[in-house]
């Protein structure tokens, strides 16, 4: 038997074992004409080249997916990013989405929370509850998660600079529900490097931020073992205008920096690497996007296995969430966005995503209304339940064009990674403004092409309407800032302020040394110290990051 056939047989055996533990959705999959659909389609004998480049799903280098059965076993998690106004309003939207068949939660925080200010801070004025929910203390978090069983639902939180604080609040709500931290499942974004490059919600300078991240890796490995400790994000790099290749290259370079920082802090790679996760964008160039996801998986597997010498196959797997491309949406003829989102979501699924957010049609104009959010969720459900694309693993694997694009993206990504390595790694490249300049250049080129009409955006620079109908938009309560400030005043008058000060002082002292800060943050949170107070305690030790102009 050839090596290919031997490996294929071994994979089939392995898949059978996996299915006995985690059964597939159906006993038998078939098309509408009753043609039986097999788990995997492979060439007659792919030889060594197939084995090296593609392999089998669930096995190194994971080009064809991280699970042997992929969506035949379980659909991706349908995880709509949601949050606005107060914790009550967002809790209501969360419950609505779960009732409508969403399978995971994803929290959008407002800007003050994202940069560690309380709702009553003068810095927060005008921004409270605008782009996400306002969470100033454990009391808000309790309201946000009311009636949601934390041992059953996994929750993602898009929080970066104050990630440790919001994670501590989540753990504390779990404690109140009787769910111990080892039972919690979810993800914090916690990806500060891309904040300096593309997104902007940083607080502390890079070295202190990297320490906090490493502290979280270490703490979670012990206490919250099923938590995804970081969501290393290309999404925002792409939103800032990068190309697909740059999105993968800069994300993986940042990921290398996180892994290196944790290893330098003394953590064994296989202890934290299985819980690293990723987050990518999906744009309209359908086939390039599919190839991008496949290439990213293959490159990461090589990096983890060969560069960092990880032994556990779970450390080699690139698991990722996808969001459809916000920057591709148009304010004009917003219903057209439903079609864009469908194409992008399908690319994510054909690329093997673990979790997916589909944007709402009105997101170029405002936060989504309930109707728009429902249509966005329905879009994923139609792909899952009606299209049949989930019935076989990596259905486009072996397409000449897809494989060519996968190889080509991989080659170009390695070129960037090598260049960034030569510059001293991602942190140095960011400090020198290299990634920022590369993204700005790509973004400017795209803008020029759109303005000249070379790149067509349907309904925006071609096929325009003279009279645009005005859609109904969601408006955030302008009184929210005041309401939240009143609540905070009440909280501060009712809690044990002496205890709060004691715990904040202990945190400060720990920050001056080199202890893991998570237990101190958790202690402060439990005493109802606020987001702003905890972040200010660390600000007083770490200082604030001020960007240079590049
Ligand atoms: C790893 C991911 C990507 C996905 O995790 P999930 O729990 O949803 O999915 P999962 O890990 O694939 O599946 C859950 C469990 O089922 C198992 N499982 C899945 N499929 C299987 C199969 N076929 N066979 C056997 N087991 C299977 C998995 O191994 C896992 O168990 P085990 O764990 O036991 O293995 C995570 O990090 C995540 O959910 N990320 C979401 C990030 C996010 O929503 N971000 C929003 C950003 S929004 C944003 O930034 C917007 C813009 C802005 O604000 O600027």
Automatic annotation (TrEMBL):
The keyword Iron does not apply. It comes from the Bacteria. SUPFAM superfamilies: Cobalamin (vitamin B12)-dependent enzymes. One of its GO terms (molecular function) is methylmalonyl-CoA mutase activity. Residues 31-544 form the Methylmalonyl-CoA mutase alpha/beta chain catalytic domain. The keyword Isomerase applies. Keywords: Isomerase. CDD domains: MM_CoA_mutase_ICM_like. This is Methylmalonyl-CoA mutase. The lineage of its organism: Bacteria, Bacillati, Bacillota, Bacilli, Bacillales.
